[in-house]
Amino acid sequence: MRINRRLLQSIAMLGLAVLILYRIADQASEEPNICRFTQRGDVDELVYVDHARCRMRCRSVDQRTVERVYRDGVVNCRKSNYKDGKPRYALEKRDDRGDKIRVIVEDDEGQHIIVTVIRLGKGDHCSCS
After folding, report:
1. Bigger pLDDT: 7 or 57?
2. 52-67: average pLDDT
3. What are the DSSP calls for 4-61, one per residue?
4. In angstroms, rounded to a whole number, what is the distance separating the alpha carbons of residues 97 and 4?
5. Environment class of 112 (CB within 10 Å of its CB; exposed 0-12, middle 13-18, buried 19+)
């Protein structure tokens, strides 16, 4: 009886150790939390793709507003995602007119790329590819 109890305790401890090691390995391989964008760089280092510049013109959003949203905007977790393994953060903040502006920022190994800019709740009549 005593051997069986020790054997069961040993098996339980081994199982617990395996579970802990598995959990640690699983956490290490997870992508960063998409709701956190804490490494905001200097606005002078932002890179704007052509699509973002076109959307800014279509939606009457100037670069100063984009920079303000980048610096002070709140992450919308539901609109943030990963593309090709790179996090894309949806940052939102109201502009001087009271409109909510969403800026999509891709983090490419520390370089922040402005992918697109949206004036929420307002339509636009131009096309950008």
Report:
1. 57
2. 95
3. HHHHHHHHHHHHHHHHHHHHHHHHHHSPPPTT-------GGG-EE-HHHHHHHHHTT-
4. 74
5. buried
- Asked if residues 67 and 46 have their Cβ atoms less than 8 Å apart, the reply is yes
- If you average pLDDT over every residue of the chain, what do you get? 87
φ, ψ for residue 123 (rounded to 5)?
Answer: -85, 160
Statement: residue 7 has pLDDT above 80 = no
What pLDDT sits at residue 20?
A: 73
Tokens for 127, please give them. Answer: 């096309």
Which string of DSSP letters, residue by residue, matches 67-119? HHHHHHPEE-GGG-EEETTEEEEEEEEE-TTS-EEEEEEEEETTEEEEEEEEE
For the chain, what percent of residues have pLDDT higher than 70? 88
114: β partners: 48, 105
In the structure encoding, which two tokens stand for residue 36, read together? Answer: 């956190």
Residue type (1 letter), 34: I
Question: Residue with structure tokens 């280092």?
Answer: 45
